[in-house]
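Lab meeting prep.
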Amino acid sequence: MSTAICPFSGDPITYGHIDLIERAANTFDSVVAAVGINPLKQYLFNTDERLQMAREALKHLPNVEVDTNEGLLADFARHKGIHTIVRCIRNSEDFNYEWQLHQINESIDATLETLWLPCSTGKQDISSSAVKLCWQQGNDVSGMVPLVVVRMMQARNR
């Protein structure tokens, strides 16, 4: 059985994240959508909210499990017995960053493989940071995130 991890912040989950996870779910028997917990990052949504949004947004994928990952991804993968990470590349900056992460993960666990998928057309400008910036400026973000996220962002505004 082939399993992959799709790590992401999920702050909030976007159509870009969903696209990548759907593509991984079509390629692998099972996928762990790993919502990252980084104590050095300041999140808009807490872990429970990010999990709730991700589970709702991914519920149409029966072979996807949503979990949290605190700490190094290589350690999480080893704990789960997974040897494949799937990441998305939107541009050359993403590639440089992802290459560094790959080298770190490989130095921790040489059996860990990273597969990079190019971003789907029309999704290259979607990021959690862009969504938050647009929302904070009062713009409609419904084209970048699922309805569950829009609702949670609206509730946050109240």
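Slide two material, second protein:
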Amino acid sequence: RGIPCVSELDFYVSLAGDRLRLAVCGTHGKTTTSALLVHILERAGRDPGFRLGSTSLDVGGTARLGTGPFVFEGDEYTSAPWDSRPKFLHMRPKGACVTRLELDHPDVYASLDAYREPFLELASTMPPDGVLALCADDPECLALRDSARSVAVTYGTNAGSDWLIEGAHEEGGLQRFHVERKGAPPLDVLLTFPGLHNAQNACAALILAEFAGVAPAEAVPACADFRGPARRFQILGEVNRIAVVDDYAHHPTEVAAAIDAARQRYPGRRVVAIHTPHTYSRVSRLLEDYRQSFTGADVVIIGPIEEARERGMPKIVSSQDVADRAGPGHAVHVVASSDEAIDLTSRITRPGDVLLVLSLGGFDKLAPRLRDALEAQGVRG
């Protein structure tokens, strides 16, 4: 009828109008970082609008109009069936961050060069009076600084970082780390989420919050009561000292980071990692990366590959292929269903274990079902 198709994202961009737009981009950490940024802005009374990839446990929902700065989770996947451009290029942010940059979505991007291209376009098209926060611990991410038109602020453990993370450790169920900042007072941060990657994510959120006018003295305390987005290292509880944690990790790098986080949060405890790989194209292209994913786990359980949008496609790779690369030093099991995973896990789990479910789709709500199964066995702690 002559009316152009409009994607959901374009709808939210139009709602944001001329308000300050902040976009959180990168291969990993987008949802946690953007949810923390929203939480900081909310705590500061800024009434942020937002569009996230998961439900915020702090403010509720995945989207809200608000009246203040608008926070977008800047996904690099295609915008709509009729628009192959990545979502974040539609957002035209004045403030943005790139948390990580490594090949993902091989069904869309044939190579790292192709995947990198839209991030280069983002860096080169942002306004000169904007800010682009970049993780200095990732060379690909840091290299975007050379293309940035806006002010580039780097963060991480790299010695040359503008925001230098030091001394990250667990303290009373929180992660504490120190941040030395060039030309500004240092920060001492307490964060609810474990793992160095989450300290990096918090820095990105704090940089964008400061750009939005929230002073660090007001923003930093929000990190200490951040509940986070659903299924991002979400601790569902403990039954007989068995911790059950639900996490969205599905990329090999994310799997390794989540296991490292569990090691930091639960030192000395046995980690049982239960993972369902996601899509044949991703698993096939990144298969060898799985050799490094499970080194921190004591027991590994691999479930069926989540077909998702590739349902009905030829099965070019299998869960056994992933298990074969899970590495020595721990027991590795392959299960054909969530019921089989619950049966196996219930039999091998012992008090003190950490059950870490790593799955984009949740593996048939496996984490809460495991918790309920343990409780049904009458071993409530």
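Talking points for slide two:
The chain has a mean pLDDT of 95.
DSSP finds twelve helices and 18 strands in the chain.
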